[in-house]
């Protein structure tokens, strides 16, 4: 019965190591996705510390490749030192992912204040040229999120670009894609996106942070199971005489 329990634990442990390799790739992908998306929205969110959780999960993903290798070798060779190191490293990674979850919730709560503080400044800097970074950022966001202005398209009246252009128009990035020959004129509001960008940018950034939080929570639970299986194998290896005989016989064979 003891041998069956050990064998089951070892089988689960080997399976979990394979999951760790898959998890490593997923975590690195999520971290990279956060960095790429942040680059598209960085003008609306000036707090670079928001990238700390994403940086951590990339580091954790890289570490999981090593953890999976250590776990597989230790399980196959039935090494007490290897399994102990495996369990300790998993514990450290588990604590790290708990930190990621906490930081994720902290920075997620700051998103709205950060966007509210910076979005007006970005719109004021708009000049309508592709060489200008704030202009490219606004045009990109308005096309991607299907929005116009901060709260609605009428906010463009308060911008320097609108006052200098004097044509009663908003940027063509405010135009709905199904409208042909749209020039952005305010005399045809039906051609323009009715919703403002501020709320949609906040929603997008919060969604991205939730991806990080859920990824950390999911893989923290998997690592908890890995620690449990490693501890079961270690404990029974030390206290089960039948297992000791099995290991000894296998070694001499």
Automatic annotation (TrEMBL):
InterPro entries: Tetraspanin/Peripherin, Tetraspanin_animals, Tetraspanin_CS, Tetraspanin_EC2_sf. The lineage of its organism: Eukaryota, Metazoa, Chordata, Craniata, Vertebrata. This is Tetraspanin. The keyword Membrane applies. Pfam families: Tetraspanin. It is found in: Membrane. It is a multi-pass membrane protein. Keywords: Glycoprotein, Membrane, Transmembrane, Transmembrane helix.
């Amino acid at each position: 019965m003891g041998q069956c329990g050990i064998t089951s634990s070892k089988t689960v442990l080997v399976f979990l190591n394979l999951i760790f390799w898959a998890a490593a790739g997923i975590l690195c992908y999520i971290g990279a996705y956060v960095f790429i998306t942040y680059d598209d929205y960085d003008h609306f969110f000036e707090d670079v510390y928001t990238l700390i959780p994403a940086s951590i999960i990339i580091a954790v993903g890289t570490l999981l490749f090593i953890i999976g290798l250590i776990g597989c070798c230790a399980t196959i060779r039935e090494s007490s030192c290897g399994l102990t190191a495996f369990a300790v490293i998993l514990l450290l990674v588990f604590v790290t992912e708990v930190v990621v979850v906490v930081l994720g919730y902290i920075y997620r709560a700051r998103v709205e204040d950060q966007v509210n503080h910076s979005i007006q400044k970005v719109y004021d800097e708009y000049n309508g040229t592709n060489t200008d970074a704030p202009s490219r950022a606004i045009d990109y966001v308005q096309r991607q999120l299907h929005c116009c202005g901060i709260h609605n398209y009428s906010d463009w009246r308060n911008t320097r670009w609108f006052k200098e252009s004097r044509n009663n128009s908003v940027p063509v990035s405010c135009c709905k894609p199904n409208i042909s020959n749209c020039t952005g004129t305010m005399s045809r509001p039906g051609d323009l996106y009715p919703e403002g960008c501020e709320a949609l940018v906040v929603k997008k950034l919060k969604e991205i942070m939730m991806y990080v939080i859920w990824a950390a929570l999911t893989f923290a639970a998997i690592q908890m199971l890995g620690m449990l299986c490693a501890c079961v194998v270690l404990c029974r290896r030390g206290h089960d005489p039948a297992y000791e005989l099995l290991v000894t016989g296998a070694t001499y064979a």
